[in-house]
Design a protein that fits this description.
Number of strands: 20
CATH topology of the largest domain: Rossmann fold
Shape: globular
Helix content: 25-40%
Number of helices: 17
Radius of gyration: 23 Å
């Protein structure tokens, strides 16, 4: 008997059908990989199973008996717990209170047992090797720290079925390894796990079974055996037998576009590098080694503490991001929701924002010109949208990321800096994003991209620079570009 089964689950939001008769089975002691493009219904299905949404039709069965959760608390009481991709924490409460938020540990008198709660929180976080300050407000943690707390909160419920929605997007390789160890301990004890991820390498490593959704429908499921067939999965996700990586645009490497000489800022401790027009250069290494600070410094978001930035042969010391934007040095930040988009505005307003800000008299810009600019970016980047007027918040994650990139097309992009641009993006959208970067490089732009997924960099970059403790410790090109070399340098062996 399945631990949990979904039978004919259907969910509509207005005129949009998010789920259309979906079938799912989760077995005790096994991990089910739930795959699909952004917007395919994975999160909606997970939220129905976890009691956060009610289905319009269909049934959810637990141990063969139909259940209808009135709330997430009721689902958790039955042993079904979800850890979200975007942590749902109370930002002003300390870490230890967030770990047990909604399931507080109390004394016999009904008061919160602070000593026991702190002890238990420390033990759960210790499974990840996380050295978080238990008294620190959760909202002040890094994205990775908040994700660890979100997962720890799910584990504290001692679930029978654990749903992990993109749990590794913000984690370091070490944290991912510890999470997978925890998952294996759970499944060996008979717990069922539903694992949602766009990283096929992780799915191969941790999942026993696969289920693929497309447009809210179940289109394929099987038990894993060895390496996953990426082409088959991409075909199922898109419905296109020819859905594969677009052939890369032909590029010619030109003169230097940007050079750094002993740059110091924050955790960056003296970086020397050079990128040329038409070149895609990858920044690798474990998270927190200075990659994001380096990109922010070059883009003018962080003060340059030492060294020099040389753009097209001229030394520059940016005081504001606008100084570099006017030079065509543009940053796609790590967090598209908080830093890259106006989520309450339309697709067209987001795509036209840079054009408006660079105009000396923006009030004189014709609306027709802004609409044409937005429509051109939508066509060029293959953004799936009903048009410039659609709210950007309603787009899938991959299409939102294309909007973040697309807004820079309103200016002449000389150097494009990107910080983990495909985090939380499905494999098809990921290939389209890198194809876009290839097209920009073919037109003469220089691209510097930090990605936490080494395989992405190996597949798409001309060179890879590995950072460790704020320094570039290895530079790889051609046949020297291998995962083993990158990981060795990432752990400081090349330092």
């Amino acid at each position: 008997m399945s631990l949990l089964a979904a039978r004919g689950v259907t969910k509509r939001f207005g005129g949009v059908t998010a789920l259309d008769g979906v079938e799912l089975e989760a077995q005790p002691g096994r991990t089910l990989g739930l795959l699909g493009a952004n917007g395919s219904g994975k999160s909606t299905l997970s939220r129905i199973i976890a009691g956060e949404l009610a289905a319009d039709a269909g049934r959810v069965l637990l141990d063969g008996r139909e259940v209808a959760h009135a709330s997430p608390q009721e689902a958790a009481a039955r042993g079904i717990v979800i850890a979200h991709q975007h942590p749902s924490l109370a930002p002003d409460l300390p870490v230890w209170e967030n770990v047990f938020l909604g399931a507080e540990r109390c004394t016999r008198g009904g008061f919160v047992d602070r000593r026991e709660s702190r002890r238990a929180a420390r033990a759960i976080l210790g499974e990840f090797g996380a050295s978080l300050d238990l008294e620190q407000p959760a909202g002040s943690l890094s994205a990775a720290g908040q994700q660890v707390v979100e997962i720890a909160r799910a584990l504290s419920r001692k679930p029978r079925l654990l749903i992990l929605d993109e749990p590794t997007a913000a984690l370091t390789a070490t944290e991912v390894a510890r999470l997978f160890d925890a998952v294996r301990r759970l499944t060996s004890a008979g717990v069922g796990v539903v694992f949602i991820s766009h990283r096929l390498q992780e799915v191969e490593e941790i999942c026993d079974d696969i289920l693929v959704l497309r447009n809210g429908r179940h289109v394929g499921s099987w038990a894993t055996a060895g390496r996953l067939d990426e082409r088959r999965i991409l075909e199922l996700m898109t419905g296109d037998p020819e859905a594969a990586l677009r052939p890369p645009a032909r590029r010619t490497v030109g003169e230097p576009a940007l050079r750094l000489e002993g740059v110091r800022a924050g955790r960056v401790r003296g970086v020397d590098l050079e990128i040329k027009r038409g070149e895609i250069v990858g920044l690798a290494g474990l998270q927190g080694q200075g990659q994001e600070e380096l990109l922010e410094t070059v883009a003018g978001f962080r003060r340059l503490e030492g060294g020099a930035i040389v753009h097209r042969g001229e030394r520059v010391a940016p005081g504001l991001p606008l100084d570099m934007i006017r030079r065509g040095v543009c940053l796609v930040p790590n967090d598209r929701h908080r830093q890259g988009l106006f989520v309450d505005e339309s697709v067209g307003e987001n795509l036209g924002y840079v054009r408006v800000c660079l105009e000396r008299r923006p009030w004189r810009l014709p609306l027709a010109e802004l609409r044409a600019l937005a429509e051109a970016a939508i066509r060029r980047l293959l953004i799936k949208t009903d048009g410039p007027g659609q709210p950007v918040a309603t787009l899938s994650g991959g299409n939102q990321q294309k909007v973040v990139i697309g807004k820079w097309l309103a200016t002449e992009v000389g150097v494009l800096l990107l910080s983990d641009p495909t985090k939380g993006v499905d494999i098809h959208a990921r290939s389209e994003i890198y194809a876009t970067l290839g097209d920009l490089a073919a037109r003469g732009s220089a691209v510097l991209v930090f990605a936490s997924d080494v395989q992405e960099l190996l597949a798409h970059c001309d060179r890879i620079l590995v950072m460790y403790e704020g320094r570039v410790v290895d530079e790889l090109a051609g046949a020297a570009m291998s995962e083993d070399r990158v990981m060795a340098a990432a752990f400081g062996r090349a330092a």
